[in-house]
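Hi support team,

I've been running sequence recovery on a batch of backbones for a student project. Most finish fine, but this one hangs at about 90% for roughly twenty minutes before it completes. I'm not sure whether the input is malformed or the queue is just slow. I've pasted the structure tokens below so you can try to reproduce it. Let me know if you need the job ID as well.

Thanks,
M.K.
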């Protein structure tokens, strides 16, 4: 990560055994998510915030979770594969329908992506304000002007409902080595602030199929891939996120077909986000 112009090393062979085991019963994680109930009755939902560099797949992950739980392709969080800059401009909460008139007791917040230039992408301070619950719904981010108390879009008295309960760093697995050092620094600052707020943190590496041909051929090879394990180790060293809190996923973008192996990776990561967030809420 960092260095700007270096190319990722070529994929390497697979390990004979996975370096992390997914549940043998793929329905186990899905059952956990579908039956999850909030432990803390003072909140109406568990809030998960996604952050990371531009184009990492934050919005696509939200759509992918929606797809798995709805059993059909979903695309409520807008994405754009060719803009080259953050397509997410507003702070928006995404709820996922559970049934007639009800939603799952967890929500996602997408946020503008980080860029290396100071006048582009989301400002670190705005992400920290979002974690604390100070950013109002549909606030339009302005890379040239930080959100401050008294500004439109600033929530002066956030409740526990407004705060972030789990923070997830999203990075494309095929471009870990290409993420600019300035972006890495911004992500570190967010992580440090989250640690001071005791907010649990995870990371997901998206686009695993683009990073490793063996995984593109068979998603079940994701946790056998030596190359992907190296990328996980890099994230661990650069951001300090524990190895057991870094997950591999392939989003439903642009894939139009429901796939059990994709579902297994997505839901496994989601289960851990919910578990960490629920632990955070139970400790308050």
């Amino acid at each position: 990560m960092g260095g700007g112009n270096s190319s990722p090393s070529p994929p390497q062979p697979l390990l004979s055994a996975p370096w992390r085991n997914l549940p043998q019963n793929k329905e186990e994680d899905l059952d956990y998510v579908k039956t999850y109930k909030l432990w803390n009755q003072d909140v109406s939902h568990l809030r998960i915030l996604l952050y990371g560099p531009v184009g990492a797949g934050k919005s696509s992950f939200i759509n992918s979770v929606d797809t798995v739980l709805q059993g059909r392709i979903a695309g409520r969080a807008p994405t754009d594969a060719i803009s080259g800059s953050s397509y997410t401009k507003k702070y928006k909460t995404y709820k996922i329908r559970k049934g007639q008139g009800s939603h799952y007791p967890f929500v996602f917040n997408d946020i503008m992506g980080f860029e290396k230039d100071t006048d582009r992408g989301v400002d670190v301070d705005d992400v920290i304000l979002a974690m604390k619950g100070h950013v109002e719904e549909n606030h339009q981010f302005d890379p040239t002007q930080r959100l401050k108390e008294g500004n439109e879009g600033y929530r002066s008295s956030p409740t526990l409902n407004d705060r972030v309960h789990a923070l997830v760093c999203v990075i494309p697995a095929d471009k870990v080595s290409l993420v600019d050092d300035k972006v890495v620094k911004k992500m570190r600052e967010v992580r440090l602030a989250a640690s001071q707020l005791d907010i649990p943190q995870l990371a997901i590496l998206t686009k695993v199929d683009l990073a490793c041909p063996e995984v593109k051929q068979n998603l079940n090879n994701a946790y056998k891939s030596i190359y992907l394990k190296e990328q996980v180790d890099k994230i661990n060293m650069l951001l300090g996120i524990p190895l057991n809190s870094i997950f591999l996923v392939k989003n439903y973008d642009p894939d139009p077909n429901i796939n059990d192996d994709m579902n297994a990776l997505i839901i496994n990561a989601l289960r851990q986000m919910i578990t960490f967030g629920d632990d955070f809420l139970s400790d308050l």
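--
Follow-up from support: It reproduced on our side and the slowdown came from queue contention, not your input. Confidence is low (pLDDT under 50) at residues 81-86. No action needed from you.
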